[in-house]
User: Fold this.
Amino acid sequence: MWRRKACFPWACIGVATTCFLVWSLLGKVSAGKAVTYNLSGWRPPWGIQIRIDYVGLLMACLITGVGLMLLIYSWRYIEHELKEERIPYYYTLYLLIFTAMLGFTVTGDLFNFFVFMEIFSITSYALVAITGERMALRAAFKYLLMGAISSLTVLLAIAFLYSVTGSLNMLDISTRLKSTTYLPVAGVALVLFIAGFAVKSALFPVHVWLPDAHSIAPSPISALLSALVIKMGVLGIFRILFTVYGHSFSGLSSNWNSISGVIAWAAALSIILGSVMAIIQRDLKVMIAYSSVSQIGYILLGITLVSTRGMAGGLYNILAHAMGKACFFLVAGAFIYKHGLRRIEDLRGIGRTMPVTAGAFALAALSIVGLPPSAGFVAKWYTLWGCFQKGQYAFVVIVLLGSLLSAVYCFRVVYYMFFTGARKSGVGLDEAPVTMFAPAAVLAAGTLFFGIFAGLLMPSLNNATRVLLMK
Amino acid sequence: MNFGRIFHNLNYAVSALLFLIGLYTVAVKPNLIKKLIGLNIMETSVFLFIVSVGMVDEGVAPIVTGGYKAAEAVGRVVNPIPQALILTGIVVAVSTTAVALSLCLKIYERYGILNATEILGREEP
Assistant:
């Protein structure tokens, strides 16, 4: 039971069981009602409450689904990439980060929130450095410094909020904040929260840790970090702005002199600068990492526009981007596994020898750029609708320009993969192992599925955001 | 500057000062170990802040021994929740420092120096 070879099956059983349990909650949670559980029977605000509301369940299903795919992918890749004695540590850290993200999503208590955030942050620093090569250590150290400072900022903000309201339960704090006289303190706490979570979600000025960390980590970890961990930063901003502070707290509008307006402008800058930096890269994984910076800008722009459609678009974009970006990194990892290729120019003609893998990349590229009928298109459409609802035409221009720039870097790779390279006779299919291209293909098919069948999710999402913004 | 107010809230003022000192150390000093020390100073300042929130003038430790009822304990006993918060925070800080120090060890093995400007400036990825 404790043998090294038993790591992967045990991890799979754990993750698959969690996936099943989380997905079985899908029917029970809707816009108004949430599944709650009070730990040890103590009612809030005296006890810690686990509260799975709509957005929380969406994120939890995403984490378990994508996490299972990445775990299946890791089996072969980790054998190839890491030293033999580090493989059990990899699976341990993977399960820890998976648990921490799930805990972060479902908790209703602010300090529990902080503890889970720290768990996934610290395990992600370790996972970035797990290969032990020089670049990985330096990227992990930079990530650690910025991440630790941002966690401290969040802790300080929690301390400020506790000193003003005397409670740590999110809903309780939002009730007490409505009748508080210490508004400046609550305002400072809000700014500190946003600063901390902005680093975690790699928003424009503080995104500098992301390209190094995401490109140098082993590919399933890059996919995990880009697809899920930075979404936890976004979820943090969402929870602070809408659950803890609530819509009735002054400052939630899209003007540049309110906090959500500032985030929206930083997100808009992220979109443009991330895409521009991605275009000039020569290494595939660094390009995909900068693309993450750009896409997080889209997500945060949608969420902080504070309009029903915009927020639905931002939340749908989380789903679309998680699947698309995880697929990108898995495909990049498959190229590294098979041929050791990292530069984009070396990918000439690889679409002929590895068609399924390269095809998955092309399909996910549709979603990242935002072409119909992919999920990314639905998400960006709703984000644009939200911009129009609020009358922010500058953001419309920026979203469209960002899509154009994304098309440049995504389709450049597709061009190299499929439309160049001499046709050599006698070179047949040399595809990656099944457990490696199957998750990539499933994720790419997922972006297509959620684009065509957006009606499965969009009505309830629209309902949820309308209820959220009406209170 | 109203010095009376600052002396009355000395804990909070010192906590803010320590936070800024720690932030300066992390940002400016090139040695990696000094950056970690700055990080620990910042963490200490946040813990100082949290504990000061729970302090009550002339309060005793929050242990119920001789027949306190819940209602009469409010003004006399120090708030135990911030103490629980910082215990958790200290554990988190220790874990972060442990990971950071092991990274420093590995960086020293691989690079031979612990100077951040040299390390970050060397190779292009």
